[in-house]
Amino acid sequence: MALKYAGVGAVVAKSFSRIFYRNAINIGLPVVISEEARDRVKEGETLKADLEKGELIRKGGEVIRAERYPNSSSISLETEG
């Protein structure tokens, strides 16, 4: 909850523990898994996330691949986020 209250719109990382992943989804905080983002995104950089396509989009339009959300997770985010 602290991340949501701090204004964080999503968390992007190479991997997440299962409990963090599930808890984040339950509170409506998108967690995005991306191997590429780790090497290409600077800390604090603002990105747009397309969870259905599995893409992170930088300001200049550059697309970084990410894992797509499973359907059940997307539904949870839409109704609770």
Protein described:
This protein is of the alpha+beta class. The chain contains 4 helices and 5 strands, in the order αβαβαβββα. The protein has helices at residues 2-5, 18-26, 35-40, 71-80, and strands at 11-13, 31-33, 48-50, 55-57, 63-65. The strands form 2 sheets. The chain has a 3-stranded antiparallel β-sheet with strand order 3-4-5. Strands 1-2 form a two-stranded parallel sheet. The radius of gyration is 12 Å and the shape is globular. The model has no long low-confidence stretch (mean pLDDT 84).
Task: Record the SSE blueprint.
Blueprint lengths: L1 H4 L5 E3 L4 H9 L4 E3 L1 H6 L7 E3 L4 E3 L5 E3 L5 H10 L1
Parallel strand pairs: 1-2
Antiparallel strand pairs: 3-4, 4-5
Overview in brief:
With 81 residues, the protein is of the alpha+beta class.
* Strand arrangement, major sheet: 3-4-5
Unreliable spans? none
What structural category characterises the helix and strand content? alpha+beta
Count of individual beta strands: 5
**Mean pLDDT reading:** 84
Overall morphology? globular
Quaternary class: single chain
The end-to-end span amounts to 12 Å
Query: Which range best describes the helical content: under 10%, 10-25%, 25-40%, 40-55%, 55-70% or over 70%?
Result: 25-40%
Number of helices: 4
Biggest sheet architecture: 3 strands, antiparallel
Query: What's the order of the H and E elements?
Result: HEHEHEEEH
